[in-house]
Amino acid sequence: MPDTGDRNNVILDNGCDSTANNEVEEFIEGFDDSFSNRAQLWIPKNDGNGHFVIDRFIEVHNHPMLTEFGKQFLRANRSINVVHRKFVVDAATTNLGSYRARAFFKSLTGSYSEVGATAKDFQNWMRDVKLFIGKRDDDILIEKFKTKKETSNGVFFYEYETDSNGHLT
Fold first, then answer.
1. Please, which domain of life does this record's source organism belong to (predicted)?
2. How far lies 44's CA from each of 4, 11, 25, 52, in Å?
3. Which DSSP state fits 66?
């Protein structure tokens, strides 16, 4: 009868198998009740020197490697698309962080599984935007004003001052 001690659902069966060398073959058969996974490991016992050698190892998976709920966390199933990117940038202009932006996006889509990206994805995108802007935020603002002045037919006007280091004052 197999020994079913509390060994993480491992059954030890001391099945004797007479071989040509009069060695006793022990095998460990492990299973997980929730998935009915039957993995097998044969370890022949060598009585001569007391060492154990793995003879055969059969690993069988007859269950899905992850659930439907878990698929949303795979890198292939999550990505930051254009809508996410714009939403994160707009949320940053209203002083919402990346985690709150994702929570707000969840309320718009219905559930976290429908968002299509993790909070870390949102945070990484915001980090990339900040690195891109860097210390050029004043240059971006001035370029925006120049474009607005050119397209407004003289209706829009701006002026700015810089210090000796070229920083806006």
1. Eukaryota
2. 20, 16, 4, 6
3. S
